[in-house]
Structure formats: structure tokens, C-alpha cells
Amino acid sequence: DAGVIQSPRHEVTEMGQEVTLRCKPISGHDYLFWYRQTMMRGLELLIYFNNNVPIDDSGMPEDRFSAKMPNASFSTLKIQPSEPRDSAVYFCASRDGGNEQFFGPGTRLTVL
Amino acid sequence: AQSVTQPDIHITVSEGASLELRCNYSYGATPYLFWYVQSPGQGLQLLLKYFSGDTLVQGIKGFEAEFKRSQSSFNLRKPSVHWSDAAEYFCAEGATRGFKTIFGAGTRLFVKA
Fold this sequence. Notes:
The complex is a heterodimer of chains A (112) and B (113).
Chain A: E1 5-7, E2 10-13, E3 19-24, E4 31-38, E5 42-50, E6 53-56, E7 65-71, E8 74-79, E9 88-95, E10 101-103, E11 107-111
Parallel strand pairs in A: 2-11
Antiparallel strand pairs in A: 1-3, 3-8, 4-5, 4-9, 5-6, 7-8, 9-10, 9-11
Chain B: E1 4-5, E2 10-14, E3 19-21, E4 24-25, E5 32-38, E6 44-50, E7 56-58, E8 64-68, E9 73-78, E10 87-94, E11 102-103, E12 107-112
Parallel strand pairs in B: 2-12
Antiparallel strand pairs in B: 1-4, 3-9, 5-6, 5-10, 7-8, 8-9, 10-11, 10-12
């Protein structure tokens, strides 16, 4: 298996623009997680899905953030409009029945 | 609420020296415990995990961790550190399937020659 795939790996955009981050989980994993990592706040869980259904979105910072999982092999995290304070590395992870999370390589987002 | 504490923000050890990274968890019942490593510019990679059974667990890259219920700890150890071990290490706790995994703040390991 190729592991968790995230795209793009790097994104540079201007304040106010819409940003869409993409994730393909490992086949057969029924949980998917979105995290944000910054120097100031460390690793934060934004939202997670079980069987494509959002279970806990309490970590989503604002209404500007939204996440979807239209099917078992694809998820998006959207920021609209983006702000400089959204600059961070965003990780997607998926999990199997063994409770171990497998992380993607991350998307480094820079909002100018 | 679940929480994971890593008391050391950063640690510096000499190459070849032993290493111990501390982790304390809060969950009262038997937790699922993990150690992950993150190299610069990379995602998190699982080093080892504890679910039940033998309290001393072996992981990849020569790491081991010991679960101590009486101390609510799950410290990571390595007998001889290599320069390539320089990275950030995260302890994590997942109470049971269906609960989200809680990560500690991380400990950054520096290795000096």
C-alpha cells in the first residue's frame, strides 16, 4: 500500500483565497483524521471521520474551515477565506481496527 | 478528560549515550499508548504501541517503552542513541476504539557528536 497520500505537499496562497487540501487514506481504514501542526500550538486534532461520517469537529477553529469525506477513499479540508494565521502543516491520518494511526507526509500551507 | 504530558520540551544527549523520554497519561482504565517519531519535514511514524500484556514493549529502531500503571507513565528508552535519532517524539493515548487519540506536546531530541 502507498500509505496515506496528501496533496499538495506545499501550498502558498494569498490572504482571502480559498485553499483545498486533499487526502487519500489507506484502503480499508475506517477512521480519518485531520490535524494541524504549528510551533505555537503543536499538533491539534481538527476533525475526524468514521465510515465517512464526521464524528467530532470540535477542533475546527472557525467556520472558515470545513471538511468533507464523500467516500471511503477521499477527504478534503477547505479553508475559505484563508488568513495568514492559518499557515501551518496540515496532516491527514487514517486508522484501522488496531487503533494505530498512519500519517500522511503533510501539506505545508503558507498564507501571505 | 484524557491528557498526555511530556515534561521535557527538548533534550540533548551525546551520541552513544542512553536516552529516556518521559510521558504521563491521565486515562484511568487501561489505555492504548503510542510513541511516534517525526523527522524534520516528515509525517509522524509509529515507533511502538502498548495495548495489553507485557509492560515492556519493543519497537522499531531499537526503541523500547515501559508501561507503569502505578506511575501512569509510558517512558521511551534507547540504550545507545545515534545521530539519526534526532527528531521530535510524541507520546499519545487512545482510550479505546472510537475515541480520538490524544497527543502530547512532543519532545525534541538533539544529538551531539
